[in-house]
Amino acid sequence: MSYLSNPQLDLAFDYVRNTNKNIFLTGKAGTGKTTFLHKIKNEGIKRMVVPAPTGVAAINAGGMTLHSFFQLPFGLHLPGATRDASQQRRFSGQKISLMRSIDLLVIDEISMVRADLLDAVDEVLRRYRDYSKPFGGVQLLMIGDLHQLPPVVKQDEWDLLRHHY
Predict the structure, then answer these.
(1) Start-to-end Cα distance in the chain
(2) H or E element: which one contains 7?
(3) Which value, in Å, is the radius of gyration of the alpha carbons in the chain?
(4) Which residue among 5, 37, 141, 162 is least enclosed by CB atoms within 10 Å?
(5) Are 6 and 32 in contact (CB under 8 A)?
(6) How many Å apart are CA 59 and CA 65, to the nearest integer?
(7) How far is the C-alpha of 59 from the C-alpha of 51, rounded, in Å?
(8) d(CA 139, CA 124)
(9) pLDDT tens-digit series, residues 1-56
(10) Distances (CA, A) of 149 to 35, 37, 79, 112, 119
(11) Three-state secondary-structure class, residue 84
(12) CB 61 within 8 A of CB 146
């Protein structure tokens, strides 16, 4: 896969490489977002994981789903709700070590991620990293096009979520 030089993507690449700031990268279909993601992965500039909201998006990004990587149960993740211990999986020592070593979390197809799922990811990372920092202090790169598929929210779920989001 060839990477064509683009001033905006070059700037974004330098920003990812040289800062610890969170980034939202957007653009229409065909603007090079996936190519940009593959360049970041190939350069190996930081220890990173690339989860995505769906299996297809995860395959295209060369990663895994958010639910799988963060071992999240399906369904709502309401802020402040107590979590049923039987619903929470225990992370292996190897997974905890991986969580603590991540420098960059890349979420592809961010337009399909519901707010409560993003909060659940934040909760997991804070639990195993720095609780006082958003996403445990991991740099976040969100890639997507907000004019594409929105998150799926059923009416009964929205009735509960709208009080928080």
Answers:
(1) 39
(2) helix 7-18
(3) 16
(4) 5
(5) yes
(6) 9
(7) 9
(8) 15
(9) 455 567 888 888 899 999 999 999 998 888 878 888 888 888 878 999 999 888 88
(10) 20, 19, 24, 6, 20
(11) coil
(12) no
- Looking at this protein, which amino acid is placed at residue 153? V
The residue type found at 30 is G
What is the tens place of the pLDDT at every residue in 106-134? 998 898 888 898 999 999 999 999 999 99
Helix axes 33-43, 7-18, angle to 10 degrees: 40
Give tens-digit pLDDT for 65-119.
Answer: 998 999 888 877 767 666 555 555 678 889 889 989 999 999 988 988 888 989 9
- Residue 41 corresponds to which tokens in the numbers above? 């992965």
Nearest to residue 114, comparing CAs of 140, 57, 73, 75? 75
Q: Which residue carries 């929205």 as its tokens?
A: 158
Which among 14, 56, 13, 54 has a CA at the least distance from the CA of 35?
A: 13
Tell me the β-bridge partners of 108: 143
